[in-house]
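Try this one yourself first.
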């Protein structure tokens, strides 16, 4: 299903001006690149606060020369990178560790940049205080080989646990992991916005790891922007223009969280208070400061140590990343 989801033009232009967002629309020298090789761009979309930069980037993408911006409604699942690899969707965003897994399996995709740092929070019931206390316990996730599965597996491997043996993974397409945790039918749950806000409102469980605040997780990017390898290679100008629009949109989320939260709430994607808290907490400017290659190396190494991927981080980075567009954009925007 196609949906057009974008920030109202008048509100965007007015608020961008109010925020002092000089150069947010257009910029010197951008025309020198030439127009994008295609005027049509297809972006993976599902209702998720974390994807706010993608969901509000419409006017920025238009300013970059795209005339036909298609938001493709996709399931929030492990299949999205496969859609990107097949060209059904041009670009998407997912956890960097998930990209490492897909690259290890030979999927022809290319990581382009990180978009923000942590957003997940690991909740547990008493008496569990640390992730090491989860040995022999049950953990709820939506599905195996999902972002949450890989992130929690990496957390486990980081403290010496075997994520394939030391947890009981409770999963299934018809299960509601949050409800299972709230009903105390499982011991832990890795929550993704707005789930942390919902659990706090219910006063259920306690946070034992916040990737927003706790090291080392807060020191690395979480979600990464990526495209199909063939599309990136054959459409370098379009790729750079897409990436520039998304990174500017991330800056806008950091500068105007209330306006963005209101837009997401108006679209029915979240309660206003949940959206606002998420946008305030997530470090949307971290793409300027954090090194995406360090991020890929860290997550790929943890997955390799846990036996969940066969490839070494050096191969993942060499075969599945291209930071040239990001570095050019950083220089242009004087990051």
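Now uncover the answer:
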């Amino acid at each position: 299903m196609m949906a057009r989801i974008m920030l109202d033009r008048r509100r965007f232009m007015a608020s961008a001006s109010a925020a002092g967002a000089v150069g947010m629309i257009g910029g010197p020298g951008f025309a020198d690149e030439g127009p994008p090789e295609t005027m049509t761009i297809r972006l993976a979309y599902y209702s998720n606060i974390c994807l706010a930069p993608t969901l509000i980037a419409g006017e920025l993408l238009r300013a970059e020369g795209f005339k036909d911006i298609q938001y493709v409604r996709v399931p929030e699942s492990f299949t999205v990178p496969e859609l990107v690899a097949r060209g059904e969707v041009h670009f998407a965003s997912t956890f960097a560790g998930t990209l490492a897994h897909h690259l290890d399996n030979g999927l022809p995709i290319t990581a382009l940049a990180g978009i923000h740092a942590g957003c997940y929070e690991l909740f547990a019931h008493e008496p569990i205080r640390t992730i090491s206390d989860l040995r022999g316990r049950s953990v709820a996730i939506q599905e195996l080989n999902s972002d949450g599965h890989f992130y929690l597996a990496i957390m486990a491997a980081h403290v010496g646990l075997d994520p394939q043996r030391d947890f009981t993974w409770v999963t299934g397409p018809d299960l509601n992991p949050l409800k299972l945790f709230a009903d105390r039918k499982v011991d832990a749950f890795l929550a993704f916005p707005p789930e942390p806000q919902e659990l706090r409102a219910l006063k259920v469980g306690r946070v034992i790891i916040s990737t927003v605040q706790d090291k080392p997780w807060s020191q690395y990017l979480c979600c990464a922007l990526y495209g199909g390898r063939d599309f990136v290679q054959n459409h370098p100008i379009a790729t750079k223009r897409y990436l520039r629009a998304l990174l500017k949109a991330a800056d806008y989320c950091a500068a105007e969280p209330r306006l963005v939260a209101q837009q997401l709430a108006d679209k029915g994607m979240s309660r206003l208070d949940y959206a606002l808290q998420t946008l305030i907490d997530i470090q949307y400017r971290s793409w300027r400061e954090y090194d995406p290659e360090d991020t890929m190396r860290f997550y790929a190494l943890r997955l390799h140590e846990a036996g969940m991927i066969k490839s070494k981080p050096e191969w993942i980075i060499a075969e599945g990343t291209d930071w040239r567009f990001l570095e050019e954009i950083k220089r242009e925007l004087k990051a």
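Discussion: The longest helix spans residues 236-255. Residues 2-117+220-333 form a domain with the D-Maltodextrin-Binding Protein; domain 2 fold (CATH 3.40.190.10).
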